[in-house]
Amino acid sequence: MKILVTGGLGFIGSNFILKLLHDSDEYQIINVDAELYGSNIKNVSKIKDSSNYEFVKGNITNKRLMEELISKCDAVINFAAESFVDRSIADPNSFLVSNIRGTFTILDIITKQKKRLVQISTDEVFGSLKSGTANEKSALNPSSPYAATKAAAELLINSYSKTYNTDVIITRCTNNYGPRQYPEKLIPKTIILAKQNKKIPIYGKGTNIRDWIYVDDHCDGVLTAFLKGKSGESYNFSGNNEINNFVIVKKILELINKSEDLIEFVEDRPGHDFRYSMSSEKISKELGWKPKVNFEKGIQDTIKWYLDHEDHWKDSPSSIFNPTPWKNSKKI
Ligand SMILES: NC(=O)c1ccc[n+]([C@@H]2O[C@H](COP(=O)([O-])OP(=O)(O)OC[C@H]3O[C@@H](n4cnc5c(N)ncnc54)[C@H](O)[C@@H]3O)[C@@H](O)[C@H]2O)c1
């Protein structure tokens, strides 16, 4: 089976491609990625010469290119997106282009070519929940420009499913952690700054809660939904692991033997959602998926990976470690 993976030089897309090519030789992958700031060609260095893998530099908004690539494949798994909430506050436009226009471009082509699309979405579309847990029937209520573009893409996809019977599946996941994430995000940023004995910024009081899932579990879920999911349905994946930011940072410092004095509380992000929470009961009951990696083990493996792979992140621009990135100009 030939699959077009978009955004496969990013964090989750690259882990997904590595998993697919490692687990089986029945898949051929074309990876299309625009090589934007968060991508890293080193993420796929292990498989770059595999006969089952091809990389194409390109933008998912490029209709002609996407028509050509999709015509060579059986399905599309769309990971490509602008993905950092803080940047969506500083520069929302690029989020509208990639996350809405880009998804629309793919959606329209797969409808005409009668292929399957799996759209990778996020728990952030449900907005902040003081209590309780969102499920697949919960209303979309996004807070940030990032989450709003992901919700908009979902609405377009649902409209195509109803209007044209397009073969689509939406998956939503909670916060991923693991190897190959761009170091502007909380966990890699904390590991890298701690290693360098630099101050680690935490927004507000650090009480914001996220549910953390190891990236391999998310990739397993995407593959399960792609292979066994019902067209027109959405599936949520959670790690059953809600933790606040302060506790995560303290845990990382403890594991790498650094003092909590490195923590610095900084001005909170505007519109910072307090808590996300989703239930994965549907995919668990209907398709048999469950997260396997326990947080204690996953976070230790993640720390080890960043400490062993300095070459992956050492050239990152220092501006990404700015304590309040949403205040930066458009060039974060
Ligand atoms: N990271 C998380 O915790 C998380 C949680 C839930 C859902 N998601 C979703 O998973 C997907 C992947 O997230 P990630 O963390 O790997 O992001 P990432 O930023 O690490 O990777 C995104 C990749 O997409 C590419 N890209 C962006 N716009 C593009 C375009 N217009 N054309 C071609 N390539 C483009 C980038 O170059 C990059 O390589 C996103 O859709 C995101 O919304 C992420």
How does this model look, in words?
Its cofactor is NAD(+). Keywords: Lyase, NAD. The chain is of the alpha/beta class. It is built from 11 helices and 12 strands. The protein has a 7-stranded parallel sheet with strand order 3-2-1-4-5-6-10, with helices on both faces. Strands 7-9-11 form a 3-stranded mixed sheet. Strands 8-12 form a two-stranded parallel ribbon. It is globular, with a radius of gyration of 19 Å. 47% of the residues are buried. The model has no long low-confidence stretch (mean pLDDT 96). The chain binds nicotinamide-adenine-dinucleotide (NAD). Nicotinamide-adenine-dinucleotide binds next to helix 1, helix 4, strand 5 and strand 7.
Number of helices: 11
The CATH class of the largest domain: Alpha Beta
CATH architecture of the largest domain: 3-Layer(aba) Sandwich
Residue share in β-strands: 15-25%
Structural shape: globular
User: Fraction of residues in helices?
Assistant: 25-40%
Alpha-carbon distance between the termini?
A: 39 Å
Radius of gyration: 19 Å
Tell me how many strands there are.
12
Kindly state the mean pLDDT as a whole number?
96
The domain tally reads 2
Largest sheet: 7 strands, parallel
Give the strand line-up of the largest sheet.
3-2-1-4-5-6-10
What molecules are bound to this protein?
Answer: nicotinamide-adenine-dinucleotide
